[in-house]
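Chapter summary example.
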Amino acid sequence: RGSGFILMDEATASIDPALDRQIQATVMSAFSAYTVITIAHRLHTVAQYDKIIVMDHGVVAEMGSPRELAERPDSIFSGMVEALGRIESARVLQMITSTKGE
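The structure predicted for these 102 residues follows.
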């Protein structure tokens, strides 16, 4: 009792990144005692999560903190960050490195 989880399946897929950041900050604050499971394709949506799971063809390919995976040059997640291009990948990496507790 007193614990629970929130499941969000592409909840912010159709909104702009600024509003997505506001929603993520609200979710992290309002539901800090909950386990939040988020299904997302946009990396900035999950950049500040504690752990992420990268799926590849329906199979768990890798799991770890965004920082751990971004720092591994052979990781799928690292490749996804690089594929964003110089400016957007820098934004995502800034979000990852500014995460508290990392």
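To summarize the output: The chain is about 45% helix and 20% strand.
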